[in-house]
Write a structure and sequence with these properties.
25% strand, 19 strands, Beta-lactamase, Peptidoglycan synthesis regulatory factor (PBP3), Domain 2, 3 domains, disordered N terminus
């Protein structure tokens, strides 16, 4: 069921790429020499044009894309490779390696991809797998890994063999896979490469066979739409040429203009016609389509999601993926809109990166893509007050306030007790002083009374007897 839905969605997207609306109709595709061709938005993968894309063709040296990516994945670039008689006897375009010649692996790879040197392809194949036969098995296993189904290789360079074939759609998949590798991209964009001197040959410079990258030679000028021009095309950054008598002119090119990256596949053209065809289709692609970015991975949105029983009562959200979309060149960006669908709330704990919703992308009201929306932070389970939606930070302030209040209350009570004790002590002292004063007064009164009594009774006092 999911596969069926995916196919339906792909069909919808393709329908939007090839708009039926008259206001966004693409211009007519130029006439080509090529018998198979494709134009692809490299960012979105949308196919903008196709011609006999599934028909079997001989790929010629475009084969070297697979040899190159295997070399990048498996070779030690610092290693030294030694050519043998099989390498030296390789036909076609070559670096003219000699039997016993030693060359750095990185130099051999660049010479193969930039100058399309067949002998370097055989050298690399034997260095990786021990033999061309075993390397070819690796190539076909790699094709299966990439997901191509109508391609079969019998050699590492593309020289003609009846059982060595591919098609435009497969070569597009191969090229897209290879161009995901930064090292591969750096190599295929070069206009030339200098091979240092070896033990048997002086320094050599190989020029790119892709005239779209570098060439401004008058002898190579071509007619494009009845205009005589150089092959060099602005913004080209690859990818690989190919030519044999059976394959005809082949070229897989890539160019960028104003943020839009377009790949063009040309098969079964002529030697110079492949460049003219590529220029026509690149111009057509850039004139009719452009790529826009609908979402930016990592962007934090203004919206938040409520968190229940958490240390925080809400968490921010961010976009997981970049979403790009191909639109007609004259269309406004406003035809693309987005819709955010979030969970109303989530229970703690929440992990950073946890999916909390989706951001849907619409083109003229039709959903064309979506990406997950993720939690920006981790939210641990909250304390007891989180039951009432109170964050831990606020709860800490509350507990601190309560603790301070209790402390102040205890301090106040202690002060009150001390004061009261002092008051009681003072009252006791005052009562004692009063009692003592009364007692002393009473004693004095008694003494006076006693004297008075003695005086009246005896005519003298006790004090007189003491004298």
């Amino acid at each position: 069921m999911k596969r069926i839905l995916s196919i339906l969605l792909a069909a919808v997207i393709m329908a939007s790429v090839f708009p039926a609306m008259p206001s966004y109709a693409a211009s007519e595709v130029p006439k080509l020499e090529a018998e198979s061709a494709m134009v692809i938005d490299m960012t979105t993968g949308d196919v903008l044009y196709k011609l006999n894309e599934n028909e079997m063709r001989y790929p010629a040296s475009t084969t070297k894309m697979v040899t190159g990516i295997l070399a990048i994945e498996k070779l030690d670039f610092k290693s030294t490779l030694t050519a043998d008689q099989e390498v030296a006897a390789t036909l076609g375009t070559s670096l003219k390696l000699k039997d016993g010649e030693e060359i750095n692996a990185w130099d051999a790879l660049n010479a193969m991809m930039v100058g399309s040197c067949n002998d370097c392809a055989v050298l690399i194949a034997k260095a990786i797998a021990g033999s061309v036969y075993e390397f070819v098995n690796m190539m076909n296993a790699k094709l299966a890994e990439i997901g191509v189904t109508a391609t079969h290789f019998t050699n590492p360079h593309g020289l003609h063999e009846d059982d060595h074939y591919s098609c435009a759609s497969d070569l597009a998949k191969i090229a897209m896979y290879c161009m995901e590798n930064e090292t591969f991209r750096q190599i295929v964009r070069q206009g030339d490469y200098t091979v240092p001197a070896t033990n048997k040959t002086e320094q050599r410079v190989v020029d790119s066979t892709n005239l779209l990258i570098k060439d401004e030679n008058d002898t190579n000028r071509i007619y494009v739409d009845n205009v005589l021009r150089y092959c060099k095309y602005p913004g080209v950054f690859g990818i690989k040429t190919g030519y044999t008598k059976a394959a005809g002119g082949c070229l897989i090119s890539a160019a960028e203009k104003d943020g839009t990256k377009i790949m063009c596949i040309i098969l079964k053209s002529s030697s110079m016609g492949r460049f003219a065809d590529s220029i026509k289709l690149l111009d057509w692609g850039f004139n009719n389509f452009r790529t826009i970015q609908c979402t930016h991975a990592g962007d934090v949105l203004e919206d938040t999601v409520a968190v229940k029983r958490g240390a925080f009562n809400k968490v921010g959200v961010k976009i997981r993926d970049d979403i790009f979309y191909t639109i007609p060149s004259e269309a406004s960006d406003s035809i693309i809109t987005t819709r955010l669908v979030l969970e109303e709330s989530v229970k703690a704990p929440v992990e950073e990166g946890q999916v909390l919703g989706t951001l849907e992308v619409y083109e003229s009201g039709l959903k064309v893509g979506a990406t997950d929306v993720l939690a920006t932070d981790t939210v641990e389970k909250g304390g007891i007050l989180s039951i009432f939606g109170i964050e831990d930070a606020t709860a800490r302030k509350i507990w601190l306030g309560i603790t301070l209040f209790i402390f102040l209350l205890i301090a106040a009570l202690a002060a009150y007790v001390i004061v009261k004790r002092r008051q009681i002590a003072r009252k006791k002292a005052a009562r004692a002083a009063k009692l003592k004063a009364r007692q002393e007064a009473e004693e004095r009164r008694r003494q006076l009374w006693s004297r008075s009594y003695d005086q009246e009774k005896y005519g003298r006092t006790f004090d007189d007897d003491q004298k």
